[in-house]
Design goal:
The protein has 1 helix and 5 strands, in the order βββββα. The termini are far apart. It is mainly β and 104 residues long. The protein is elongated, with a radius of gyration of 25 Å.
């Protein structure tokens, strides 16, 4: 059984006379793909829609000031990852040197 998480973004603002609390809530439907030609390079893309979006604003007394729904909105993104192992190679080399017997 899969859990469905509904992300919520909260905004908090303060002025001299009042405090407000805003909330943006929606249901994202996302598809993603990842391509990794080798262990050091990876490219990921995702695209989808944000559904059933609502924005609410409450005041300091937790009273509803405004509420609004918005139409489905597209979302997309790209991630590129490049890994390099310079530090681990250097550590392995120094460990190898430490474990070899001394030559006089």
């Amino acid at each position: 059984m899969k859990r469905i998480l509904i992300p919520t973004a909260r905004y908090h603002g303060e002025t001299d006379s009042s405090t407000s609390d805003g909330r943006d809530q929606s249901i994202p439907m996302v598809a993603s793909a990842t391509w990794g030609p080798n262990p050091t390079v990876k490219l990921s893309v995702f695209a989808g829609m944000e559904l059933n979006g609502t924005v609410t604003l409450k005041n300091a007394l937790d009273e509803l000031v405004a509420e609004s729904s918005y139409d489905p909105a597209p979302l997309f993104g790209v991630s590129f990852e490049f890994r390099f192992y310079v530090a681990s190679i250097a550590c392995k080399a120094s460990l190898r040197e430490l474990t070899q017997p001394f030559n006089n």
